[in-house]
Amino acid sequence: MPQEAWNQKRERQYEHIKESLEKRGTSEDLSEEIAARTVNKARARAGESRTASRSSLDDLSSSRRGGLRSHEGPGGRTYRQLYDEAKAAGIEGRSTMSKAQLERTLARR
After folding, report:
1. Cα 71 to Cα 92: distance, rounded to the nearest angstrom
2. Chain-centre distance of CA 76, in angstroms?
3. Rounded to an integer, what distance in angstroms lies between the CA atom of residue 9 and that of residue 92?
4. pLDDT band at 15 (very low <50, low <70, confident <90, very high)
5. 43-102, pLDDT tens digit by residue?
6. In CA terms, which of 8, 60, 76, 78 is 20 to 30 Å from 100?
7. How far apart are the C-alpha atoms of 33 and 2, rounded to whole Å?
């Protein structure tokens, strides 16, 4: 659940992340946890929290990491995203395919 120390921007950020995850089929409990962790990490990086772990400060920001995994990002879709898309499309043999094979198969559809 959102914490008292969060400002309005962080509250909106939390709700946006949570709703996005739930739209993708993530359970409500997991969505809340991921959203809270993401907002807390952003707060730590911005100096808004009293304490911050080293990984919160040194690691890639959540927004940057997500951008790298987006459909248009340099790395393209992850194997998991491709696999789930192939599953939804009913492609047989997907469990034995590599990432490149999944990309080619999905591109043909």
Report:
1. 23
2. 14
3. 45
4. very high
5. 887 777 777 776 666 666 666 666 665 555 456 788 998 999 999 999 999 999 999 999
6. 60
7. 10
